Amino acid sequence: MEHESRPESARPSFDELVALTRRVIAGFEEREQRPWGVEASLIELIKQVGDLARHVMMAESYYLPDRSSDARYATTTERVGDELADILYCVIRLADLYGIDLAEAQVSARRRELDYLGLGDEPRPPAPSHDR
């Protein structure tokens, strides 16, 4: 499976991805007439991780060879990407439910890891902007 990428200038920022996700969440809440709480959001995250695992296992030919011609065991890079995007959606939803700024949490966690690895003295990326 080949990896395709758009030019950096055409890629949305993380804040734009979060804003898009929040619009989708609001749309589903309006349609379903109820918000999802932590429990439902966590269950959906776990389901999506299982879907990702299935697609990765198919992509890596983990299943027995006799299934290689079975359409139920076929996948594409796009389908793996869709599952990763669904996981990001669930993570954003959970972060919002707990009031966590994911960009800040990501930078903080990775900086701690760099410090642990002895790489903390290297130039750091700028702190995330907060366009909320």
Overview of the structural elements:
This protein is mainly alpha-helical. It has 2 domains: 13-100, Helix Hairpins, CATH 1.10.287; 101-132, no CATH class. Helix content is 59%, strand content 0%. Helix 2 packs antiparallel against helix 3 (77-98). It is globular and about 50 Å long.
Would you kindly provide a brief summary of this structure?
By secondary structure, the protein is mostly helical. It is 59% helix and 0% strand. The chain folds into two domains: 13-100, Helix Hairpins, CATH 1.10.287; 101-132, no CATH class.
SSE topology:
Layout: H1 14-32, H2 38-59, H3 77-98, H4 102-116
Q: How many helices does DSSP assign? A: 4
What's the end-to-end separation, in Å? 37 Å
**Largest sheet properties:** none
Name of the top-level CATH class of the largest domain: Mainly Alpha
Q: Percentage of helical residues?
A: 55-70%
Compute the number of structural domains.
Answer: 2
In round numbers, the mean pLDDT is: 88
User: What is the name of the CATH topology of the largest domain?
Assistant: Helix Hairpins
Shape: globular
Overall CATH architecture of the largest domain: Orthogonal Bundle
Radius of gyration: 18 Å
Summarize the helix and strand pattern as letters: HHHH
Structural class: mainly alpha
